[in-house]
Amino acid sequence: MQFSFSQSKILTNCLRVIRNAWHFYYALVLVFKVVCGSIGIALLTP
């Protein structure tokens, strides 16, 4: 399979966007877990 320079650059940009989207998703999930965990701890403490 032969790629021209522009096609490989577009492919690289797409992969970079996908990687950034996954990092954003995992960061969002982590923040959500931390917020829910702190709310749960606050509800359990008298």
Kindly describe this structure.
It is built from 1 helix and no strands. The chain has one helix at residues 5-44. The radius of gyration is 20 Å and the shape is rod-shaped. The protein has one domain (11-45). It has 46 residues and is mainly alpha-helical.
What is the domain total for the residues?
A: 1
Number of E strands: 0
Helix content: over 70%
Q: Which regions contain 5 or more consecutive residues with pLDDT less than 50?
A: none
Largest beta-sheet characterization: none
Q: Indicate the overall shape.
A: rod-shaped
Keywords: Membrane, Transmembrane, Transmembrane helix
Protein name: DUF3265 domain-containing protein
Organism: Photobacterium sanctipauli
Transmembrane segments: 21-44
Entry summary:
The chain has one helix spanning 5-44. The chain is mainly alpha-helical. This is DUF3265 domain-containing protein.
Keywords:
46 residues, mainly alpha, 1 helix, 0% strand
Write the SSE topology:
Layout: H1 5-44
